[in-house]
Amino acid sequence: MEVKTSLLDNMIGVGDMVLLEPLSEDSFLENLKKRFDHSEIYTYIGSVVISMNPYRSLPIYTPDKVEEYRNRNFYELSPHIYALADEAYRSLRDQDKDQCILITGESGAGKTEASKLVMSYVAAVCGKGQEVNKVKEQLLQSNPVLEAFGNAKTVRNDNSSRFGKYMDIEFDFKGDPLGGVISNYLLEKSRVVKQPRGERNFHVFYQLLSGASDDTLKKLRLHRDVSKYNYLSLDSAVVSGLDDAANFRTVRNAMQIVGFMEDEVQSVLQLVAAVLKLGNIEFKPESRCNGTDESRIKDKNDLKEMCELLGIEQSVLERAFSYRTVEAKLEKVSTTLNVAQAYYARDALAKNLYSRLFTWLVTRINESIKAQTKTRHKVMGVLDIYGFEIFEDNSFEQFIINYCNEKLQQIFIELTLREEQEEYVREGIEWTNIEYFNNAVICDLIENNKNGILAMLDEECLRPGTVTDETFLDKLNTVCAEHQHFESRLSKNSKFLTDHSLPHNCFRIQHYAGKVLYRVEGFMDKNNDLLYRDLSQAMYKANHSLIKQLFPEGNPAKVNLKRPPTAGFQFRASVSTLMKNLQTKNPNYIRCIKPNDKKAPHIFTESLIRHQVRYLGLMENVRVRRAGYAFRQTYEPCLERYKMLCKRTWPHWRGRAREGVEVLMADLQVPAEEFSYGRSKIFIRNPRTLFFLEERRRQCLQDLATLIQKIYRGWKCRSHFLLLKKSQIVVAAWYRRYAQQKKYQRIKSATTVVQSYARGWQARKLLRELKYQKRCEEAATTIAAYWHGTQARMELRRLKQEARSKHAVTVIWAYWQGTKVRREYRKFFRAHAGKKIYDFTIQRIMQKYFLGLRNNLPSMSPIDKNWPARTYLFLDGAHAELRRIFHLWRCKKYRSQFTEERKAVYEEKLEASEIFKDKKALYPSSVSQPFKGDYLEISKNPKYQKLNNAVDEKVLLADVVNKINRANGKGTARIFLPTKKSVVLADQKTGQVKASVPLPDLTSVSVSTQSDGFFALKLKEGSASAVKGDFLLSSEHLIEIITKLHRIGATATDREQLSIDISDEFLVQFKQDKVCVKFVQGAPKNGNSVSCKRKNNRLLEVSVPATA
């Protein structure tokens, strides 16, 4: 049986604050400190997880830990963020409940890391597979991209998220991720133009300057020196522990995995460089004849480089920085800008440019990671948003951040109470109303459509006349003076008139987390967030495709005189949408706490943590959870844990689990008012009752351990004695056996020795007799052999003597005949005998040479380079000349066999060699294949008779090709018919003409360098044939098709020659979109040698097997 642990086992402090006794703020902090000192950074408040940032790596996120918490009950193991993630995932997968995980806390508390841990856990426990792994990788790799563009170094955190992020991860019915949707809230775009002391701008600026190659920086007109850019702070340019160069490579890789095209990445980097260049533009005053001051740009070099990057005319942007045009219904007024207004316009453009780029990045990532199927999905939302902020100087940003946290606190209390009430009703326990602070009155103070602070702020921004931050404060003092949570020095409420802690230009709101003082300065400008229309129109005139998308309001054809919505209005609408989304899901909460401001481990700053506990409302959360029953547990684990406390339930209870728990509680005499029985759980009201049960269990476990030790020791001693007794019997038996075996071996050995001596004597006697008999036989044989030898030698000598006599007679006769012949020959010998002998010899040599050459001639093939070897040195020249004449003769014989059709085939083969040799891996295999041309026999096949009649010109080639579909990378069979004037594509089954492209509309053909048969027919832009885009086709006769198309273009005089582009990556126009076709080498899949697969909306990847 599996032994399950519990949250209560080996507990350091109290693992669940609901069980804390006594409950106070001091005991709450003391329990947090005790657990933090023992590296226990997670603590529960019911189902809420408190996470303390350890500022160091802990070995609690390993794959073994993932498996440990997988499919386990929430309270079964010690507190961990994995327990909450597993509970949420299993509820989504098994109960079909949409989930949301709300992560809150101040900057540096570890919210971003907590969201990464949740996503990594879900990725680890969900299904596996190529598509699933791809989706998981894209979801995880979206984080580095958003962190680079949305995170920055602050005094509190080296990687602080300066925007709110909500991600909906979509799952199928099996619990496998299908995709996701990201929503971003309130990017801190003011950081682009100004950063507080000790802080940095967004990471991407420093990563670009540190990690980009020299060539990339040169193209972007940038330098590595951070000090050259006014928008980048110098005192914190380098952060310890952050490698900007390595992070830049990580971001580039992540963008590629998410699905960004290379031209999109370059466009994004160009806009980042443009923001840096924009910050270097400075202005100087110039007096006009009418006495007014006008701004002029000091040094136009940075403006020029920025305009070159974005494709804007320099004069257009320069005028936009010097003049402002105000349009009414029937008139247009142009005014000059002074230096201060020009700097404001510059900074407003930089902030809007970066903010809209960030929004575009989020939208582009959503396009890549969104679920492709349209069926209903299960959804898990992860909210990583700013915590409650109370600074020395609080402005508009802190106001709307705290407003968002008020809404989250409101929904947190409502959902927590609703969850409690639903569980009580589900278990059949009477629900008692719980008193708690309802912050709806504070939310109404801020968001009321008539008298809310945001509504009044929007009203002031739209009011004609002189509008300032002071007039806005006066309006607040008039409308909100009597509100119990609003305080102002200038309000009608007299009790704040002498409050010197409340400056005149400030107002104070009593939030659920405490009072916050807001300085009204800057509220109007930040809420307006205006960008002059001249700048929007200048940006729209850029030749940069991405700029046009970011500034659609600059289109002169769509001028909208209506004032754009304010920042407060947009944020209130976003928060309202977020709240509606969260209310449809089952909530899970992670409250992140920062232990100290030094970002150092092992330091617990009590005052800082007390402040965070208050504004996170943790004590309020504990009180809500303890208002009814502090602890609840299902009957089965409760009985399993405490059954040893009652003799009737120990060691095994045979009945129902609830009946066993009732017997147990009755035996322990626990007061009836301290617990209640639900349908599937027991509810314990006071933590003291639970600790009483735990103490009794601990004592009982000690007694059981003593009993188990006693029984075990007795069993061990008995077992040892029985083992000794058994061993003694076995040893004695083995010894007696050994002694008898030794005695038998001695007797056997003695008998063997006696036998061997007797047998040896008999054998030696027999051997002596055999040797004597053998010697007698050998003596007779030797005497006979000597006699026969003597007779043979005598006969040999006689025969030799006769032979010598006959040979002597023959020799004498031969000498005599030779002498007679020599005497006769001397009569006829003359002086020219030597020359005749020489000529005769030469003639014989030549005759022999030619006969040998005739018999060893090589084959008639012109490519055969063999030739017989030269036998005599003086024939060297003749030998080479004969070889040349023979080669010319056989070439002439070979050419005489050619027909005109065969000559044309060889010319096409030669042209194919010039186009593809050493450029495409498919070419060598096509050399031996003849160019057949009409593979379908279209003129003879009655199936294609109608198609043959529809084509007017002579068909140069007829073959079946596959037309590649952009949506899924699959091919559709088409008949490919090129003629001298057009290219026709027809349906293979019906023979119906699907497309006819005139050859003048065909500009180029693109193929890869691999051994595939893919090729793209690129059409002239603006032509009638290009309406549906280019054609991406594949064929087994690629080399022949491209060669014939090239020959048709080469012979035509009325059009340019067809261009052949050989590259492993090229663009294909599909209707309005350009799709990149990328060829990679890989192993064949599903038996197919070449496979085409759609990676995302703008990438088709063709996998080609690697050639040996």
UniProtKB/TrEMBL annotation:
Predominant cellular place of this UniProt entry's protein: cytoplasm
InterPro entries: IQ_motif_EF-hand-BS, Kinesin_motor_dom_sf, Myosin_head_motor_dom-like, Myosin_TH1, MYSc_Myo1, P-loop_NTPase
Sequence ranges assigned to domain Myosin motor in this UniProt record: 12-698
Region (Actin-binding): 575-597
Gene3D superfamilies: 1.10.10.820, 1.20.5.190, 1.20.58.530, 6.20.240.20, Kinesin motor domain, Myosin VI head, motor domain, U50 subdomain
Keywords: Actin-binding, ATP-binding, Calmodulin-binding, Isopeptide bond, Motor protein, Myosin, Nucleotide-binding, Phosphoprotein, Repeat, Ubl conjugation
Superkingdom assignment: Eukaryota
A GO cellular-component term linked to this record: brush border
Residues that, per the record, bind ATP: G105, E106, S107, G108, A109, G110, K111, T112
Subcellular location: Cytoplasm, Cell cortex
Similarity field: Belongs to the TRAFAC class myosin-kinesin ATPase superfamily. Myosin family.
Function: Motor protein that may participate in process critical to neuronal development and function such as cell migration, neurite outgrowth and vesicular transport.
Protein name: Unconventional myosin-Ib
Phylogenetic classification of the source organism: Eukaryota, Metazoa, Chordata, Craniata, Vertebrata
